[in-house]
Design a protein that fits this description.
Keywords: ATP-binding, Ligase, Nucleotide-binding, Protein biosynthesis, Transferase. Helices cover 39% and strands 4% of the residues. The chain is mainly alpha-helical.
């Protein structure tokens, strides 16, 4: 069953703005034919009573719930900083712009 012709592949290539050589048109026509046949076989096997899914196994959320916890006090956070200015980390200027 040859569903995709060389002319159809050339038309698709033009729509996709792809430049394909003559040998590529024949090659892709055969490949697209195989893909369509494979999809048709899967469609035959698929049972109507099985709902479509995106994953074979159910997904569960692996993240823990958000809980409010005490954080570091500013003095503790800045204790090991090499330089501190106005209760903030002091870092070297990397831009020449004025703040």
């Amino acid at each position: 069953m040859s569903a995709i012709t060389r002319d159809e592949v050339a038309h698709l290539a033009r729509l996709s703005r792809l430049a394909l050589a003559d040998d590529e048109l024949d090659h892709f026509a055969a490949q697209l034919d195989q893909i369509i046949e494979s999809v048709a076989r899967v469609r035959e096997v698929a049972a109507g009573d099985i709902p479509p899914t995106s994953h074979a196994l159910p997904l569960t959320n692996v993240f823990r719930p958000d809980e409010v916890r005490p954080g570091l006090a500013p003095d503790d956070a800045l204790a090991a900083a090499p330089a501190v200015e106005e209760d903030r980390f002091r870092v070297p200027r990397i831009l020449e712009e004025e703040a």
